[in-house]
Amino acid sequence: MNAVEVIHVSKKIGDKEILNNINMILEHGKIYGFFGRNGSGKTMLFRAVCGLIKPTSGEIKINGKTLHRDISFPESVGVLIESPGFWSHYTGFENLKVLASIKQQISAEDIKKSIERVGLDPEDQRTFKKYSLGMKQRLAIAQAIMEKPDLLVLDEPTNALDEEGVELVREILLEEKERGATILIASHNKDDIEILADEKFQIHEGKLIPFKDQRKDIQ
Ligand SMILES: Nc1ncnc2c1ncn2[C@@H]1O[C@H](COP(=O)(O)OP(=O)(O)OP(=O)(O)O)[C@@H](O)[C@H]1O
């Protein structure tokens, strides 16, 4: 069974066709990279895959189950789309603990491991509001991976990170893939996509086009 199937998906808001007949089949244990100019529809596609918006037409299946019919959200998903709602007066650990308790039982040990994995200190007593942009981004990645999800949907996971942070996130994503996760990543950093992705897509004005074929035309 495929990890994700997007079948004739379109999304219209007002008169604007934001996603235009998107079709793609994603297999388990692979990394899929998405390029596209600002406003091309990457985030909207990711939102649709996570069940956060309903397509105007078409359907999305996760592990064979249709979103908004069989399930509301993918059953095992880690998401980083825009800035997650962290609480400014909690520490990094406290933030993930609250999110973990909302989702399902994740042990304190697993939360600590995922915080360490992104290069942060789970014992750090600083509250989130004192975190730098890069630290916030790292915590957001820890949040996405802490459940060891089958599906990881990451919109610009490296954009606020220094070189070392970018390297670390790439390593983490390759490990997640080894574990069997299916990973969708949108990045303006072409190296991220080149290094990580097993398959690359380009989104242009809401349409999905094979990355290689269109490269010269679009960039
Ligand atoms: N709630 C909304 N209502 C109306 N239009 C929207 C809404 N959300 C997004 N759009 C429009 O949909 C289009 C695609 O937006 P999207 O955020 O998916 O782009 P993107 O490819 O992720 O861009 P970026 O690289 O800047 O993150 C844009 O033209 C945007 O203005």
Task: Give a written overview of the molecule.
Helices cover 34% and strands 27% of the residues. The protein has helices at 42-49, 92-103, 108-117, 133-145, 163-179, 190-196, 211-218, and strands at residues 4-13, 16-26, 31-36, 57-62, 65-66, 77-80, 151-155, 182-186, 199-204, 207-210. The strands form two sheets. Strands 6-7-8-3-9-10 form a six-stranded mixed β-sheet, with helices on both faces. Strands 2-1-4-5 form a four-stranded antiparallel β-sheet, with helices on one face. Helix 2 (92-103) packs across helix 3 and helix 3 packs across helix 4 (133-145). The structure holds adenosine-5'-triphosphate.
Summarize it.
The protein is α/β, with parallel strands linked by helices. It has 7 helices and 10 strands. A hairpin with a 2-residue loop joins strand 4 and strand 5.
CATH architectural label of the largest domain: 3-Layer(aba) Sandwich
Unreliable spans: 213-219
Number of domains: 2
Termini, distance in Å?
35 Å
In CATH, what is the homologous superfamily of the largest domain? P-loop containing nucleotide triphosphate hydrolases
Keywords: ATP-binding, Nucleotide-binding, Transport
Pfam families: ABC_tran (PF00005)
InterPro entries: AAA+_ATPase, ABC_transporter-like_ATP-bd, ABC_transporter-like_CS, P-loop_NTPase
Domain ABC transporter: 4-218
Distinctive features:
single chain; 219 residues; alpha/beta; Rossmann fold; six-stranded mixed beta sheet; four-stranded antiparallel beta sheet; 7 helices; 10 strands; 34% helix; 27% strand; globular; disordered C terminus; binds adenosine-5'-triphosphate
